[in-house]
Amino acid sequence: MSDPLTIALAKGRILDETLPLLARAGIEPVDDLSKSRKLVFATNHPGINLVLIRSADVPTYVQYGAADLGIAGKDVLAEHGGEGLYERVDLKIATCKMMTAGFPDRPLPRTRLKVATKYPEITRRFFLERGRQVELIKLYGSMELAPVVGLADIIVDLVDSGNTLRANGLTPLETIMDISSRLIVNRAALKMKNEAAKALVEKIEKAVE
After folding, report:
1. Cα separations (Å) of 67 from 85, 120, 139, 206?
2. For residue range 118-132, what is the model confidence (pLDDT) as tens digits?
3. Residue 67: which of 80, 55, 51 has the closest Cα?
4. How confident is residue 1, by pLDDT bands cut at 50, 70 and 90?
């Protein structure tokens, strides 16, 4: 029997939209992921296991072969850089936009702009392409607070409904990229577990269609 394939899944909002998609592809966990404290789950296929990890870690697990496939947001993949993995399918789930946001009526400084974000690589590239010098302030949560208390001039973050921005007096300014979740595959897995990996990718592609 060949080694089972492992799919890395992100905890949180993506998971809620990923599980119905996998079910359409005929893959269902044996346990209830929302209730179990386990991190590795068997499925109704003896040759497919799921691991549940933080979304930011999904590309790393796939890159190093600890998982053969993974499902992660385009934001996480762009920040990671995508080394050692293929982005195979746009799953068209967990969609939103990555945007700059700030106060609608506050002029931005002409010199060094202070930007708070948890996406420093994406932010650096975005402003570099515009020839703009920025000071990056890395935060892990409550991004909207940074301009309110004067820590930053603007933020770069994911925007879905925009309700949290509005509640804090902020408004979206520029779109950096459209975000959705993607199926990624470890390069070595496509060679070593070729048939099984390809078949699984095709099943997921059909489920998206």
Report:
1. 11, 26, 28, 22
2. 999 999 999 999 999
3. 51
4. very low
12/52 same-domain check: yes
Which domain covers residue 61, as residue numbers?
A: 5-94+180-208
Kind and range of the H or E run holding 203? helix 194-208
Residue 34 shares a structural domain with residue 66: yes
Q: Which residues fall within 8 angstroms of residue 117, CB to CB, at 6 or more apart?
A: 123, 136, 137, 138, 139, 143, 155, 156, 157
Nearest by Cα to 193 from 48, 71, 76, 59: 48
Q: Which residue has the higher pLDDT, 195 or 61?
A: 61
Q: Which of 177, 187, 184, 178 is nearest to 201 (CA)?
A: 184
Pairing of strands 85-90, 113-117: unpaired
Domains: count for the chain: 2
Residue 195 sits in a domain of what CATH number?
Answer: 3.40.190.10
State the virtual CA torsion across 157, 162, 168, 172 in degrees, nearest 10.
60
> How far are the Cα atoms of 29, 45, 143, 157 from residue 140, in angstroms, in the given order?
30, 37, 8, 11
